[in-house]
Amino acid sequence: MMTRVPLIEMRDVSVVYPNGTSALAEVNCTIEKGEFIFLVGPTGHGKSTLLRLIHRELLPAEGEVKVGGQNTKRLSCRQVAFLRRRVGVVFQDFRLLAGRTLWENVAFALRVTGAPHRQIHRLVPELLRSVGLYHKAESLPGEVSAGEQQRAAIARALVNSPVILLADEPTGNLDAQTGWEIMKLLTEINSSGTTVICATHNQAIVDALRKRVITLSHGRIISDVAAGKYPTSAGVKARAS
Amino acid sequence: MNLQSIDFVLQEAMTNLRRDRTITLATVGIVGVAICVLGAATLFLLNLRLLTGKVARELTITAYLQSDVSRGQAISLRSQIGRWPHISSAKLITKEEGWEKFKKVYLAGQRLEQFPIPFTDAIEVRTAAAEELPGVADRLEALQETKKTVPTPEEIHNLRGLPQKAIRLYRGVNIATLILGGLMGMAGLFIIHNTTRLSLFARRREIAIMQLVGATPEFVAGPFLLEGAAHGFIGGLLACALLVPAHMYLRAAAARSRLALIQLLPDDQLLLAASAFIAAGMLLGIIGAWLSLRRFLSHQMESEAH
Question: For the segment B102-141, what is each residue's pLDDT rounded down to a tens digit?
């Protein structure tokens, strides 16, 4: 019988920044393909650090991180580049290129990986349509709303058909309604098979979507609750009364 | 790398050059000056070498033997001359060797096999020092086996120590050019290194996005290396635009004046030197950019946490 290899695996992972701050301590977790996971916890307690480990922006000081069965410590520069094509990332501040249109921003991610022109001209309109931005393709980031910028960032993150999508506070700069729209989009992406890991402070979203929730505190995982079992704020209040 | 990759690298490099025009102009200007100074010193050295080469050939006396001197006698005579005092070498040039050399230099492509060899055996003699030339020339001229010597003893007596002075000057300029070249090269390298750093800083957001979405190191580095090469190429081109006409002018002026005996580099060698200067500029540009990139990219790729 073949043992299924988890998509992401962390074993005894610790991360210490050069100034001596311990960002993560003895983190152990596994993430399977197709999961939707929320990372919750106060600011500065390790959520972004955990995401950066998966994206290989950081290496653990101790322990090992495996993505797709590969130990990230043993990857060469080129292998890191190819890993990142399989891991899309979305940030709170969108990180679009200000001087390029939304079309060019999404296309940029294909151009820098050597994609043929035909593929670019086929995929970019498709992706912009899928996030509802085809009609704004020629707009600059500064000419569209924050929600539209985030959707463009999501389109860019999806351009290489990633297996994993990391979202670091994707609704942080958005109003509640726009935030919901983004989360709906992420849920749709997840339902097509992409593993989504979303770091967020937005308790309402976490409560509503009922996904697996990993809670971090001072760089340690203090709880890892399966989908549907995370106690919502309303549930906690009800039990208390 | 496929065509699209090359297209991307070219486009991004052109964008960089156009976007940072002031920095591009400043870099090209300084690289141009560096190569100009280096180029001028190198051309001076090459011309001096040409002159001392001519003089060095004049340190050689070729004694052409009588046509009735047999090969065996020629070999014996060579050994005898080789034992004379102040002789550093005595080499037998057979008539066949002389004829082949003559045909290659002067009559290339013409079929001369049917013609009898017009030369005789010769002995090429070098002295240890230029001062010994006159004495050796007189002795060679006096040999009964010798038909004629090139140069003649009268011509050698007229040199008046010029070869030694030329050789000393050549050595001095050689050293000065190496030092100057090293300094100019470092200056050019430094300026391109700094320009690339500025360019990298200005484009750090784009580079971060490129790395985020999985661009390989060649894709990230390519445009900057090309930009460095372009800086060096244009700087080299500007330097040559100044040096080549100036050299041609000096050559023409020397030909018209009393310095007509001093021959400056001919066009083919001048153009070869100019190509080397441009290539050196490009190499300088690539190395300067690479040094900047290496540091930048290794900082980006390595872990911040240990």
Answer: 777 665 556 666 777 888 899 999 887 666 777 888 888 8
Cα A184 from chain centre:
14
Give yes or no for a contact between B205 and A97, defined as CB atoms under 8 angstroms apart: yes
Q: Is the peptide bond before B151 cis (omega within 30 degrees of 0)?
A: yes
Q: Where are the domains of chain A?
A: 8-86+163-240, 96-161
- Which fold is adopted by the domain A8-86+163-240? Rossmann fold (3.40.50)
Bridge partners (DSSP) listed for residue B50: none
Interface of B with A (CB under 8 A): 1-2, 4-5, 8, 205-206, 208-217, 219-220, 301, 303-306
Cα–Cα distance between A30 and A8 in angstroms, integer? Answer: 6
Are B93 and B180 part of one and the same domain? no
What ipTM is given for this predicted complex? 0.84
CA distance B196 to chain A (A): 20
Q: Do A15 and B305 touch (CB under 8 A)?
A: yes
Q: Which residue of B has its CA nearest to A159?
A: B213
Q: How many CB atoms lie within 10 A of CB A73?
A: 13
Give the DSSP per-residue string, B164-205. HHHHHHHHHHHHHHHHHHHHHHHHHHHHHHHHHHHHHHHTHH
Q: Are A182 and A154 in contact (CB under 8 A)?
A: yes
Q: Tell me, yes or no, if A80 comes closer than 8 A to chain B by beta carbon.
A: yes
| Residues B234 and B124 grouped into a single domain | no
Q: Could you list the residue range(s) of the whole structural domain that residue B122 is in?
A: 60-157
State how far residue B28 is from chain A, nearest Cα, in angstroms: 27
Do B38 and B133 have their domain in common? no
Q: Quote the number of domains for chain B.
A: 2
Of B130, B157, B184, the residue that ends a domain is: B157
Contact (CB, 8 A) for B100 and B118: no
Whether the model pTM is above 0.90: no
Kindly state whether residues B178 and B292 are assigned to the same domain.
yes
Question: Where is the domain boundary, B157, B186, B206?
Answer: B157
The label of the residue with tokens 């197709």 reads: A34
Cβ within 8 Å, pair A77-B4: no
Residue A205 pLDDT exceeds 50: yes
